[in-house]
Amino acid sequence: MTDVVVVESPAKAKTINKYLGRDFHVLASFGHVRDLPPKDGSVRPEEDFAMDWEADGRGEKQVGEIAKALKGARRLFLATDPDREGEAISWHVKDMLARRGALKGVEVSRITFNEITKRAIQTALKAPRDLDTPLIEAYLARRALDYLVGFNLSPVLWRKLPGSKSAGRVQSVALRLICEREAEIEAFRAREYWTVEARFQTPAGAPFTARLTHHEGKKLEQFDLPNEAAALAAKRAVEAGRFSVVSVEKKRVRRNPPPPFTTSTLQMEASRKLGMGAQQAMRTAQQLYEGVDIGGDTVGLITYMRTDGVQMAREAIFEIRDHVKQAFGADYVPGAPREYQTKAKNAQEAHEAIRPTDVSRTPESVARYLDDRQRRLYELVWKRAVASQMQSAELDQTTVEIADETGRTRLRATGSVIAFDGFLRLYREDEDDRAADARAGIAPSAATEDDEDRTLPPMRDRDPLKTGAVAANQHFTQPPPRFSEATLVKRLEELGIGRPSTYASILQTLQDRDYVRLDKRRFVPEDRGRLVTAFLVAFFEKYVDTGFTAGLEEKLDDISGGRLDWRQVMRDFWEDFSRALGATTDLKISDVIDELDKELGPHFFPEREGAGDPRACPSCGNGRLGLRLGRTGAFIGCSNYPECRYTRPLVAPGADGENVSGGFEGQRELGADPASGQKVTLKRGPYGLYVQLGEAGTDEKGKPTKPRRASLTKDMNPETLDLDAALGLLSLPRAIGRDPETGEEISAGIGRFGPYVRLGNTYQSLEPGDDVLALGMNRAMELLAKARAKVRLVGTHPKDGTPVEIRKGRFGPYVLHGKTIANLPRDLGMEDATLEQAVQLLAEKGKELPPRGGAKGKARKAPARTVANGAAEVAPAKKAAPRKAALKPAAKKPAAKKKPAAKAPARKSAAAKAR
Fold first, then answer.
1. 851 pLDDT tier (thresholds 50, 70, 90)
2. Catalytic residue among 19, 139, 193, 304
3. In the chain, at which end, N or C, are there fewer CB atoms within 10 A of the end residue's CB?
4. What is the pLDDT of residues 589-602, one digit of tens each?
5. Hey, what domains does the chain have and what are their CATH numbers?
6. Distances, alpha carbon 43 to alpha carbons 35, 141, 769, in Å
């Protein structure tokens, strides 16, 4: 009789199955098995927040598999991830199994582990517990909040602000932070200031540099030398003086190592040091957590990666200390283990920090088993965790004060020398940051050019100095920097908004909605995003306020700690929110335009000296330009409409007339095609920028003809695009060469998902930095090698002689023959399957791939719909009803047609909590 263990992912299931052996059957839920259906009424405030849950086809299938495995089983262990989402998935699985009657006579327990190692899993099995009811209630409250905000606020946006896509409880706050930072940058006015530096030589002839700190007996502040004249006067005073050393002050300072990674700090450092986006970093971390094949054994390399705790298990700390002593010597081990505490607001510290599961697996020893991203991220995690338990670095800082004979002109030189490198021997943030910034083309900041990075020659008091070159340097104050993924995550964490598991999806959603774009790793708000933010601030300011959102997070934490009732929190929220929704019922479009124009007018119509009225209509001359709203979104139009029909896209003009927030505007002729003589034009369409050869016309038979077009790639600058590049795009796909093994042509082109390289039926997307117009044979072969690693040709089918392949898929490896596929069983690896096995699987389990877009005309099977505490039911197939513009806050349905309201899981007793 086997016990059943349910985890979230098949990769994790495969790893754990190896550890537990034949007495256990490990299955995956594939994440959430059901969710709130995306339609009105899934959360009903009028029924004390009763919630409907609906399983999709995959969820029903996985729960069915689990139910089948439970026949004859004695125990079910719910081993989903050790966080709020993981607890919720376990609750959903248990509830769905109970409705199927699959839990009769089965003992159900919840287990959690922070790392996927044999020791951690066996320890977890010895300490099972019940489901954590307060944690589930916190999930219910969060899910209900997100649903009610999204499904009530988004329709208001669609009606009152055409072209908008969605609003979200946390997403909209993050967007507001980005937009407000952009407004600060636009309002910023640079201020000039100067500094004076001089080169000196010691009596021994050693050179060094010092900066002027006092001029004419007055200590200089930042703007005390405001122009060139003042700076040159100070420069002459230094050149005329005879200087000597007034004092030399030395002190030793200690620099402590940073704590090990949390989710947010890992995303920040992966962005800064490795150039990884938040989503990419979390996907890679998930792979390292779930397990990597090392010498035929699947091994989890890091602990759970969704955490806001910085503490580590005691045994891990002592293992790291032993490793440090062995690798670097006893001097690098501090006298006592380092204990860290999270400074982030609302940190739950429910889990350990992110660390290697076994410190003896050094990055060098496992590098050959990892791909490039996995290797770099594992090295980052490993070094940070080990450095956190190393001795502090010690630096000797020296400050030298220099003065002329009168004492009215003074300069200062500072420098530092590492006396003991300590943790810096393994982990240096500053150097890594500078290297990352250099790769991204970001200029070094003043902090990275600080004098303290210099070393000073030996000097003593009253040493005479020889003055060399003196320079007056002009500077300008800089605007606040735009948010990067790292700094935005840091800011959200500081404010107590969102949770470690949500940051990556929030940032991705903002980009998917075209509310923001990434430019040199910095977020730039699109005009659509600024309009949405202006609208929400004008009419729903409370719900995009950082303090209010952080306060809700605190209440959710109180619910998870059993200190607040989740339904009462929902009642308090809905009372105010529904009132705010009702206030927009009679809101006129003219009111919306007036508010948006007031807020964003300076952005779209910036005043410039000598440029005239920025709102004057260039067409009729006497009309005024302003924001207008149409069916497809906002645009700029003339007040004399309909007499004057001047319009332009909603983009802000830059200093020379270029667009600073929408890129290219309108269209631009690039030249003529030498071969055909047709003109080549750069245009903007509804799906972005493209180049066009010729114009639409008719053929000899009078049928309309379409001109040839090609989309620009994301990294192409429309302002610098020339005729040659445009013709290159129009000629795609282009041949690169031929495969040395098969002789097949290798080509490059642009498809639905961006630039690609192709060999036969094998496609591989180009990576950042690859130019589809200049891609060479060597790079194409490198990219195709990655694609080939996901495909294995096992032979030809005995019936028709066509290829039979094994491919890596989203849910595991599968066999492909023509349009027929069959999944490989769990115990059969991709590299182990033979042609005979593949043909047998195709014959027994093969199914034909559906056509793209799904089979048209066929009725789809309705997903099972589950009312919170009622029986599962299947809704009859019907035509999709048009989506409602907004939920009515107080709408009630007839009581007779309702299922009973969902009962929240019962609170655990004190004894249960103690267990």
1. low
2. 304
3. N
4. 788 888 888 888 77
5. 3-131+863-897 (3.40.50.140), 140-188+482-582 (1.10.460.10), 192-256+397-420+451-476 (2.70.20.10), 263-391 (1.10.290.10), 589-648 (no CATH), 664-718+720-789 (no CATH), 792-852 (no CATH)
6. 11, 11, 46
